[in-house]
Amino acid sequence: MNKSLFLDIKTTTETIDILFNHFLPPTLIESIPILEANNRVLAQDVCSQEDIPNFNRSTMDGYALNARDTFGASSSMPAYLNIAGDVLMGEATHLSLKSNEAARIPTGGMLPENANAVVMIEHTHEIDSKTLEVQKPVGVWENTVCIGQDIKKQSLLFPTSRLLRAYEIGALAAIGQTRVDVYQRLRVGIISTGDEIVPAHSLPGQGQVRDINSFIIGSKVLELGAVPNFYGIVQDRVEMIHDAIKACVSQNDVVLICGGSSVGARDFVIDAISSMGEILVHGVAMRPGKPTIIAKIEDKPVIGLPGHPASTAVVFLVLVQPLLAHLQHTTLSPGYLTATTSRNIPSQPGREDYVRVRIKPDPESSNSKYLAEPIFGPSGLIRPLFEANGLIKIPLDCEGLDKGEELPVMLM
Amino acid sequence: MNKSLFLDIKTTTETIDILFNHFLPPTLIESIPILEANNRVLAQDVCSQEDIPNFNRSTMDGYALNARDTFGASSSMPAYLNIAGDVLMGEATHLSLKSNEAARIPTGGMLPENANAVVMIEHTHEIDSKTLEVQKPVGVWENTVCIGQDIKKQSLLFPTSRLLRAYEIGALAAIGQTRVDVYQRLRVGIISTGDEIVPAHSLPGQGQVRDINSFIIGSKVLELGAVPNFYGIVQDRVEMIHDAIKACVSQNDVVLICGGSSVGARDFVIDAISSMGEILVHGVAMRPGKPTIIAKIEDKPVIGLPGHPASTAVVFLVLVQPLLAHLQHTTLSPGYLTATTSRNIPSQPGREDYVRVRIKPDPESSNSKYLAEPIFGPSGLIRPLFEANGLIKIPLDCEGLDKGEELPVMLM
């Protein structure tokens, strides 16, 4: 039997469901400095041990006072208060305001006892060093931040699985947590197969080509915050592929096999995988990418990618990227841009077509619209891949796109 | 004179123009392995020393032959060819086809001499081990990739300043270039000022707060591929700020000063900068972010950011991010998502308002539309910052947005 007949072909949606249902995110944890934690995922609940701020703080340059003493004040009927002193920046104040007293306060300064508002400097006038004229009333707690208003003591600040960005890291700094427990980086083993493949640093003889796929995949894995581990180029022999996969599975969370491009080479990969685990998907209704293999070995995902660079890249973007996000305890939000097709793009119903496009500003639009110009070319070439900056999906049941259709383009 | 009066306030567009016109990208170069070059910018022209591929290659499993010998073939009137032998994967073939001869060839195999096309296995039938029936004609060079078709020898593959992605890295691997000259990472010096600021690892007394801004800015700088260098927290004294800026300018390409939030603290920064270089912008028509300072010291940009975390973050996103991209020899393309405002958002004409929003799926839309829910709150708090995932710009001359307006949201 020709194993490339793909008797039970799956859609991309079915394939992603299978990946998500069969594989759980690994749970190994490491503690790292918060400055290195951008784009990492929390592996602990974070609670604050303190109120932030831990004092009532002014948000304006002005005068701390009791709001009651300004009620009814206007420029024609100002309120007059006694200036009791100055709040100094960064210092606890020991002032305690009596009725009709105010204290000079800078933005960020600590409110004195009995103050419950700050009037902005712009609405005041110092008659002399002891007397303040207030021309506008302020509400209770106006122009202030109260104790615990930002973050409450003992409250949950971030739950486990929160994706950390610069802003969460700022909040961790605010509560004094300078290290944080995050999930370890995902380890992705990469195997290249194919008798025609030689290492990138060597000079290929006739009939040979350099290993491109390891670099494309390795770069993308790094880009997604995971760690690529390379297992070199394995000859097209079932036992050698078997041994490479075995080592790779034991040392990684995910295994990606950049397949030889011939049917024979793919059969070797299928045979090797079949002897070690369960094949979940063999054949996906997409182009490029139909010969994709998904298997489960020792509860880990092993994915056979097609051999052509463009096919490998598309399958990575469409199927592997969401899997890696899932295994990193997060969801993927790839960038999309809305663009208009620059010409008709044919497609065969019965499969999803992924068309590489060049997104560029529409010269006929004044309103920063974009055109998507399809880039055709054999998927064995690298040029149509690096000339593209976007990927369009033509759905399963669609015979193609007309020129001028507006649609989302996945940024590559 | 109160230096915060901002007599010559600039728009954000004017400010970015000033930044781009005054500051050139640094040109220091380093050589790195291509696998580390994702998101780096080429500092050399890359030419290929070889044709890629360096042999005529099959893109299908099938039979190499001369296209002429299949002309007119059909399933009712097949062509019959003699099978001259097998092309082996990854090996030079020494076969030379005579008239009406074909050779078995795998995808990626080398075409024999005198072959100029490949017929797919699906359109053939082997009558016996010596005789091939071909049921469909092929065109000249059909199902092949010719010598140099992907990348031509001596041609320019990528010019200087090309941003490298996984696909460019794949192309570099294809031509055997495993190291590449790129521009060095941008060095960004970060100074915190403010008498109320204490280090994140310490316990603030009353009236004190931890340094949040260094972490937000440092994380964003790392995220953009630049190197943050921290110069600690500097007291609000002109001479101390002066000395910190001087050290920072000499050791970095860009200096960011996270300002104290009070008017007095800002005045110290202005005084220190004025004594060392030229102030280009003092006051930007945006909220938050109005007190932003941009100066030129020793031909390097020195930017004073406002002290509140939300203000610092917004100024970083709107002004500093494009500058860092420019200084990294690239252009910025921040992610945008189209969303609909969930409620009216007021704004004052005469300045750009930047409103933090939470983007979420619109529960009333079946078509994966998004709602942008504004998050209000004092810019001195960190919570409204980490609760947001998007930023909306309300233009200078606009009095606000109505509920239901569709607009682009910058992803945070």
CATH architecture descriptor text of the largest domain in chain A: 3-Layer(aba) Sandwich
Report the C-alpha radius of gyration of chain A, rounded.
Answer: 31 Å
Strand content of chain A: 25-35%
Can you count the beta strands of chain A? 28
Average pLDDT confidence of chain A is 94
User: For this entry, what is the oligomeric state of its chains?
Assistant: homodimer
Major beta sheet, strand line-up of chain A: 7-4-6-5-9-8
Distance between the termini of chain A: 37 Å
Q: Please estimate the helix content of chain A.
A: 10-25%
Structure description:
The structure is a homodimer of 412-residue chains. Chain A has helices at 12-22, 166-174, 213-223, 238-251, 263-274, 309-327, 383-386; strands at 29-33, 46-47, 57-58, 62-65, 79-86, 101-105, 117-120, 124-128, 131-134, 144-145, 156-158, 179-183, 187-193, 197-198, 209-210, 227-234, 254-258, 278-282, 286-287, 293-297, 300-305, 336-341, 345-346, 352-361, 370-374, 390-394, 400-401, 406-411. Chain A is α/β, with parallel strands linked by helices. Chain A folds into four domains: 3-27 and 185-327, 3-Layer(aba) Sandwich (Molybdenum Cofactor Biosythetic Enzyme, Chain A); 29-46 and 158-183, Molybdopterin biosynthesis moea protein, domain 2 (Alpha-Beta Complex); 57-145, Molybdopterin biosynthesis moea protein, domain 3 (Molybdopterin biosynthesis moeA protein, domain 3); 336-411, Beta-clip, CATH 2.40.340.10. In chain A, the strands form eight sheets. Chain A has a six-stranded mixed sheet with strand order 7-4-6-5-9-8, with no helix packed on it. A six-stranded mixed sheet of chain A has the order 16-13-17-21-20-18, sandwiched between helices. A five-stranded mixed β-barrel of chain A has the order 22-25-24-26-28. The first copy, chain A, is elongated and about 95 Å long. The first copy, chain A, starts with 11 loop residues before the first helix and ends with a strand. Chains A and B meet through α2, β15, α3, α5 and β22 of A and α2, β15, α3, α5 and β22 of B.
